[in-house]
Design brief:
3-stranded antiparallel sheet, globular, 9-stranded mixed sheet, alpha/beta, 17% strand, Glutaconate Coenzyme A-transferase, 348 residues
Length: 348
């Protein structure tokens, strides 16, 4: 079977080609391994009027809201760096009325993505939520945030959430091949469902590896090549968050961002320095080294801790020998088809 085409491109090209203003855009990662460089490139290209989906709005959501790109936000959590009194981009936008927010539980957010991933139009969730403000308080989704329907089997009222099918998912993983087979390990959250529920997928990765590396550990592949539109190799592409097997959380850089994000002017200065002032991730890392030093970057690198290898050897033998002959009859496939045709063993 022929492999998919080579999909390797820069972050700049991938965002230009596959993210449009007005899109429903989902940040695929959950708390760690954030797709930082892809988020920053969306900001640099000023893709506006977005409906943004995020299970864990940390610095990524704050950056996009501060840049004025997000009109609507579907989420379960937002790290409001300065709190309600200090602010944060999301808090300030909500108070200014420039951002609409729809709030879900982690379970119900994931349920909507699972429904979208499997091609359902909705999915049942636990009805205990009906008595909470999460059910009662609605924003731009209005009656479509939750619906109560009659179960066709029991006749009881059941609570449902609609399927989520964003236009495009941006997601960061440990490694991928040039065709788009993306491998990820560590805390999964909604990463796989977020990608597979989306219409287009942009994958950034710490490294692009040969296809035989992907084949040697198929259990790590969470997004298959045929679903991926672009592959971007971006070492340190999730900094300041951590990537299992590559580097740890940069607590200092994270803390500096949170302090800056507490005020509008502080966050604007941070954006000017770290996003607009760095044309790509290489420039970002160069700027980091200039300010913090090589030692600050090197101490983040993860120490190797390998899992035990798994044996994928076949538990059966092939019916074909090294000469492509069937081991019992001693004939090739073409010869076998000829015999079956002559004896009228094919059924139309």
């Amino acid at each position: 079977m022929a492999l998919a085409r080579d999909k390797v491109m820069s972050a700049k090209e991938a965002i230009h080609r596959f993210v449009n203003s007005g899109d429903h855009l989902i940040i695929g990662n959950y708390t760690l391994c954030a797709c930082a460089e892809l988020v920053y490139e969306v900001v640099r290209q000023e893709k506006k009027g977005l409906t943004l989906y995020s299970q864990s709005g940390v610095f990524d959501v704050e950056v996009m809201v501060a840049a004025g790109l997000v009109d609507r936000l579907v989420t379960t959590y937002v790290l409001r760096s300065g709190g309600k009194s200090g602010g944060s981009a999301v808090e300030r936008a909500l108070k200014a009325g420039t951002l609409e927010l729809e709030d879900y539980t982690n379970y119900n957010y994931n349920a909507g993505l699972v429904a979208g991933m499997h091609g359902f139009s909705f999915i049942q969730v636990f009805e205990g939520l009906i008595v909470t403000d999460l059910f009662k308080k609605r924003s731009f989704m209005k009656e479509n945030k939750y619906r109560i329907i009659k179960c066709p089997y029991s006749g009881k009222d059941i609570l449902t959430v609609p399927a989520m099918n964003p236009d495009v998912c941006i997601v960061h993983v440990q490694r991928a091949d040039k065709f788009g087979n993306a491998q990820y390990w560590g805390a999964l959250g909604s990463v796989a469902a977020a990608a597979l529920a989306s219409k287009r997928i942009i994958v950034s990765c710490e490294e692009i590896v040969e296809h035989d590396v992907i084949q040697s550990s198929p259990h790590h592949t969470i997004i298959p090549a045929y679903r991926v539109d672009a592959v971007v190799e971006v070492p340190w592409g999730a900094h300041p968050t951590e990537v299992v097997g590559y580097y740890n959380l940069d607590r200092l850089a994270y803390g500096l961002f949170q302090a800056a994000a507490a005020t509008k002017d502080g966050l604007k200065a941070w954006l000017d320095e770290w996003v607009y002032g760095c044309k790509d991730r290489n420039a970002y890392i160069d700027h980091f080294i200039t300010k913090m030093g090589n030692q600050a970057l090197n101490r983040l690198k993860a120490k190797a801790y390998y899992s035990a290898p798994a044996n994928y050897g076949a538990a059966f033998t092939s019916p074909w020998d090294s000469n492509n002959k069937e081991i019992y009859m001693g004939v090739t496939l073409e010869e076998m088809e000829k015999i079956m045709t002559e004896r009228r063993l094919f059924h139309e």
